[in-house]
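Much of our argument rests on the idea that a fold can be written as discrete symbols. In the encoding step, the backbone of a single protein was reduced to a row of integers, each denoting a local shape. We regard such an encoding as a compact summary of how the chain folds. The record that follows shows the chain in one-letter code together with its fold in token form:
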Amino acid sequence: MTAPVTAPVMQDAEIRAGVEPIDQLLAEHAVLVERVAPFWALYGAGGTADHMLSAERCRINGLLRAMAAASGKAATEAALEVGSRAHPDYLALMAKQTTERAEYFRLNAALEAVEMRVNRGQALLRFASAEARMTP
């Protein structure tokens, strides 16, 4: 994806007003969006992370049931519940998701910071243009 190029007259206004160039900010924003997109798919609205945990617990429950049947014992629902939540595979997935959620939070904060810098630049340009109109 290529970022749109700002017209030279706009770039000149940004430079004179001492504002970060919008092209630079949009490029930074695009890089952050590419990094945050996979995490958003997992942990954002409608994400699949919780479903992945449920599926992992179902897989482990099946494994524990099969192991109990192979040893001739009956597996109670309570034992399956405890066993699946304490299983190393489930704990590893939870640890991985916790780390990824933290990165998702950091990337979202970085995106918000870029958006704030864009807004600040727009405000400075509005102020500079209003000041120029008021100058006799």
Summary: Helices lie at 8-17, 22-43, 49-70, 77-86, 88-134. The longest helix spans residues 88-134. The radius of gyration is 26 Å.
